[in-house]
Amino acid sequence: xxxxxxxxxxxxxxxxxxxxxxxxxxxxxxxxxxxxxxxxxxxxxxxxxxxxxxxxxxxxxxxxxxxxxxxxxxxx
Length: 76
Ligand SMILES: [Zn+2]
Known about the structure:
With 76 residues, this protein is α+β, with helices and mostly antiparallel strands. The chain has a domain at 27-75. It contains two helices and four strands. The chain has helices at 10-17, 63-75; strands at 28-29, 36-37, 48-49, 52-53. The strands form two sheets. A two-stranded antiparallel sheet has the order 1-2. It has a two-stranded antiparallel ribbon with strand order 3-4. Strand 1 (28-29) and strand 2 (36-37) form a beta hairpin. The termini are far apart. Zinc ion (ZN) is lined by residues 30, 32-33, 35, 43, 45-46, 48.
C-alpha cells in the first residue's frame, strides 16, 4: 500500500484550517416582533413574513402556553 512520503507539518495543517472558521450570521430584525431572525425566512417567534402571518405559532399550545407566548411577543 502506498504511503505519503512525509507527513504534513502542524504549520501546514493550521494554515489550511485558518480559512475554515465559522463567520457570524448576518441577522435581520423582524418587523413584526422585533427579534433577530435569519433574513428572507419566516420569523420562528411570531410566524410572520412580509407583514403576513404565515405560520400559526399558537397551534397545538395549551391555553396557558398560549398566554405565555402572547406575552413574550408583546414584550419584544
Ligand atoms: Zn417576528
